[in-house]
Structures are given as structure tokens and as C-alpha cells.
Amino acid sequence: MIVYGKQVFFYILQKHKHLIKELYLAKELDKKLFQSISKEGFKIQKLDFKKAQALAKNGNHQGFLMDIKEYEFTDFNSLKKANFLALLFGISDVGNIGAIARSAYAFGVDGLIILAKNLSMSAVVRTSAGCALDMKISLVTDAMAVINELKQEGFSIYSSAKEGVSVKDVRLCEKKLLIMGSEGFGLPNKILKKSDEILSIKMINDFDSLNVSAAFAILCDRIVND
Questions:
Q1: pLDDT tens digit string along 42-65?
Q2: Domain that holds residue 7
Q3: What per-residue string of b and e applies to 189-202 under the rule 16 or more CB within 10 Å gives b?
Q4: Last residue of a domain, one of 18, 44, 68
Q5: What's the pTM value of the predicted model, to 2 decimals?
Q6: How many C-beta atoms lie closer than 10 Å to residue 15's C-beta?
Q7: Among its keywords, does the record have Glycoprotein (predicted)?
């Protein structure tokens, strides 16, 4: 799995060496920086601009690329013992998913459940600045089954929607599932009806909605810190 970008490159080099298969450099580095990379003992292949662009599929690699082991998704059943989970419903943009994974890691979310049959984890790892590698991520195809099973495990269900209430007005339970819908379509009524509470972010100026990754970060902060 190819990932690229300076920040991701050094994050993985520092925290996930066991995943690295090969390193690629497509720029000249100062001696000190090159030595700090080479001392890790991995094979380093130098690439010209054309080869680097092809490997990154024309992405902004900044001269730093690496081949790492494929991401291993977590079985949903193993997440049932967690306390704080998030379910992403109808969110397909890998930029948003990566940003959500980054916030989830920062705020101590135990795992992400994503409604999808497959997911480009190379893009998610990149857009999360590498944090997705520190998150348990499970792919599911039936959101209602997930909600019902987690309810049986003692989880309270908190959905995000415009017509909800502020987090500060809710007595949060220890085991909780936060559900986020897409910016365009939100969450279907069947999920809202299954929810114990619907949470919203009150805004000063009248505006339709926030970016879903920004909304997720705000809600996580209020859930964890308020």
C-alpha cells in the first residue's frame, strides 16, 4: 500500500516501523535528514519526478513516499467491549474520513465503524496524517444491525442532526455510539428514531451545516471535555 507526504512519512517511520516495506525519496535531502532516515535500516529507493508522480498517482508527495503493509480492518464484534464508538453513515469522501479518523484518535474514540463495502485506506491514512493506523476501523453494510447490536451491549445512541440539542444539555452514558451522516443527506429517519438523543451544534449565523469532519471534531470535544 503506497502512502506519501512528508508528515505521514515521518509519522509512520516513528510510530509504525513494523508496517514499512520500502522507502522512496524523490528529492535531495540535507545530509542530516537523510542520515536520520537511512539509520532506520530500510531499503531506500530514489525516484525521479516522473516515477514518483506515477507512484503517487499525481498526488502531492512532497518527495516522500513509502510502501507499507495493507491495513487490517477490525472485526465489528471486537468493538462491542469499547466505550466510545463512532458510526459514519453515507460518508464516502476519503478526505473527510481521514480528518474524522485524526479527530477520533485525538479525542480518544475507541473505534470507527464505516458503512461501506470497501475503503481506500491508503488515502485515509494519508489524509489522517497517519493517525488512521492507530485507530480500529470496521467496515459494515447494515447500519441498523450495528445499532441494534450495540444497544443490546448497553450503548446509548447519539445521532448528529440539525434539529437536535446541545451536548451540554444531555446526560451522556459511559458506553456511547456517535452517528454522523453526510453533509448532503444527513441521517435517515429510521436511524434518528432509534437514537437515544439527537445532538446538534448551535451556530451564531444562519448557515446550513458544517463540514462533517469539523462537526465531528466539535461534538467529540464537547462529549469528552464538557
A1: 989 999 889 999 999 999 999 999
A2: 2-68
A3: eebbebbebbbbbe
A4: 68
A5: 0.92
A6: 13
A7: no
